[in-house]
Write a structure and sequence with these properties.
The chain is mainly β. Helix content is 3%, strand content 35%. The chain has one domain. It contains one helix and eleven strands, in the order ββββαβββββββ. The strands form three sheets. Strands 1, 4, 5, 6, 9, 10 and 11 form a seven-stranded antiparallel beta sheet that branches. A two-stranded antiparallel ribbon has the order 2-3. It has a two-stranded antiparallel sheet with strand order 7-8.
Length: 149
């Protein structure tokens, strides 16, 4: 993930990648936001990948959807590694085995928020500040990989 120069803060920028591995909006958690509204017609979230901010820090966590079509019903998170800081952003590596052995074809969107810890809520984040691809546009897709022998 790369941000406009000067907008990425390694201590407070939280990155969430929402992933629809079966490319079916009728399965998983609906939509790409905590209200389960934005893009519910095009995304059914099977996994969340989170890093950054006060809750996740340097670690990269994968949260599986707990099943059904319940909004924001997530199973236990698993740590799949650490992020790599680069100029104006981060690089993440998530093994396909952490995504239910997905073959590499999926829909995704990236959400950015800022963690603003307070005494009342030390792990809180702001609401989503931006989406890539933007809300209302088609989700990004990673094509099925080509294997050369």
């Amino acid at each position: 993930m790369r941000y406009a120069p000067g907008t990425f803060n390694a201590a407070t920028t939280k990155v969430n990648v929402v992933i629809d591995i079966d490319e079916n909006p009728a399965t998983g958690s609906p939509g790409v936001d905590s209200g389960c509204v934005n893009d519910a017609a095009s995304m059914g979230l099977d996994f969340l990948v989170n890093t950054g901010g006060v809750l996740d820090g340097e670690n990269v966590y994968v949260y599986p959807h707990a099943g059904g079509t319940a909004c924001n019903s997530w199973g236990p998170r698993s740590n799949v590694g650490t992020r790599t800081l680069v100029a104006d952003g981060v690089d993440l590596v998530v093994p396909l085995s952490a995504l239910g052995d997905d073959p590499g074809r999926l829909k995704f969107k990236v959400l950015a928020a800022t963690s603003i810890p307070t005494v009342e809520c030390p792990t809180c984040s702001t609401s989503v500040q931006d989406y890539m691809t933007d809300v209302g546009s088609a989700p990004g897709q990673v094509p099925t990989p080509i294997i050369l022998f």
